[in-house]
Amino acid sequence: MVMSSTPIRLSRRQFGETMRRDRWWVQPLVVFLGLSTFVVYSTWAAFQGENYTSGPYLSPFYSPEIFGASPHSWFGPRPAAWPAWLPFSPALLILPIPGLFRLTCYYYRGAYYKAFWADPPSCSVGEPRSTYWGESSFPLILQNAHRYMLFLSLAVLAVLAVDVWKAMWFTDSATGTVSFGIGLGTIILAANAVLLGGYLFGCHSMRHVAGGCVDRISRAPLGLRAYSCVSCLNRRHMMWAWTSLFSVGFSDLYVRLCSMGVWSDLRII
Ligand code: FES
Question: Which atom belonging to ligand 1 lies closest to the Cα atom of 150?
Fold first, then answer.
């Protein structure tokens, strides 16, 4: 039997060209607006260097406060040797850790590659470049630092959990006595720690750690259950990424506005 074949010439799509009829541009646009808003607000808040504590509450942007003027500071005020020309804020010392962790996150990479430099704009939509370098050459090879940022971020998360505990102890300004209590700020900081935990423990790199850092999961029986837990969180990694991003920004806003006297903390217990 003779089979005939007709060669089909594949032509390269122009940038933005597509046969898709759905609103494929909505998701990258929402990502662009969401991440831009967060980056602008967090940068502004980090450079303020004030109004980041209120009562027992400490903004997560400023925690741990390594050097600073508040009672939460680990090593006291700004070092005398700090150059006068260099802006100082306790947040600038710590924010690079969660910032680089999110920047190198597998989910965010896929999201901001589409939303910020349209490469690709979306599936089946023409790209701006004709070459593909992937993430195996400079500068995107630096994304591999994600696993190391995970370990540093876990340490920061542990500090935020301690902050929640501290946010349950209120000092009476008149008598100076310290008593247990729960305010709306305590709940906001606790919810933030839980959401950040869901985001961190669902990290793709965490699956490797939870699996015992071996290539075959069957060789790490003790890690199997932990691996399953991480995989469960990982299935909703996008949800954890966005809810924790919102909660960490809102936690800073709440503490800031309470500190400025714009909002009053609601004492529940
Ligand atoms: Fe998203 Fe690690 S892959 S936090």
Answer: 2
- Domain segments of the chain as ranges: 26-127+143-260
More confident call, 40 vs 231: 40
Label residue 254 by pLDDT band (50, 70, 90): very high
Share of the chain above pLDDT 90, in %: 71
The pLDDT of residue 18 is 87
Start-to-end C-alpha separation, the chain: 85
Q: Global pTM?
A: 0.91
**Measured CA angle at 59 (ends 53, 65), to 5 deg:** 80
**Does residue 230 line the site of ligand 1, with CB under 6 A?**
no
Beta-carbon contacts of 53 under 8 Å, excluding residues fewer than 6 positions away, are: 59, 62, 70, 71, 72, 255, 259
Asked if the model's pLDDT at residue 194 lies above 70, the reply is yes
What's the pLDDT tens digit per position in 43-52?
999 999 999 9
DSSP code per residue over 77-101: SS-TTS-TTS---HHHHHTHHHHHH
Q: Are the CB atoms for 162 and 197 separated by under 8 Å?
A: no
Whether 67 and 77 have beta carbons less than 8 Å apart is answered as yes
Q: Where are the alpha helices (DSSP H) in the chain?
A: 26-48, 90-94, 96-103, 106-117, 146-166, 184-201, 204-210, 221-234, 237-259
CA distance 71 to 107: 37
Q: How far apart are the CA of 197 and the centre of ligand 1, in A?
A: 12
